[in-house]
Amino acid sequence: MVKHRVYVGLILLALLLTGCSGKRPEITQQMVDFAKDVISGYDHVIEADAVIKDDVISLAIITSYAISEEYAKQLGDNFVRAMGAGAAIYNKELNGPAADSYGGVYKHYTVHIGIYNVAEEDVAVGTMAKGASRIRWQ
Question: Coil, strand, or helix at residue 81?
Fold first, then answer.
């Protein structure tokens, strides 16, 4: 019985020390610039920016009038993935985006994404909660 408790205690300690540090990785200007450079190369994107405050990443894209809501969502998805890729490039402890994930940085941050036309009208707005695997579009 004592051995069992020791093993359980060691397993819990190992889990705490390896995967549950809780420390939020820093989002650097290099990461933001990488994501902005990527998304700025897409058709109809006029401007893009990112603001990080506490555990929230806010992303915004300004586009021409000539985009559909579906294309706006695709741009938003790509910007979120680009930020995840930039985070992984400059922080080797983070995983990059994959088919089923936007990247390891989103285990630590909530993201808000807005795509607006030049008249500042919403084309698509979405949120992905910390730890979630998909963007919820409004």
Answer: helix
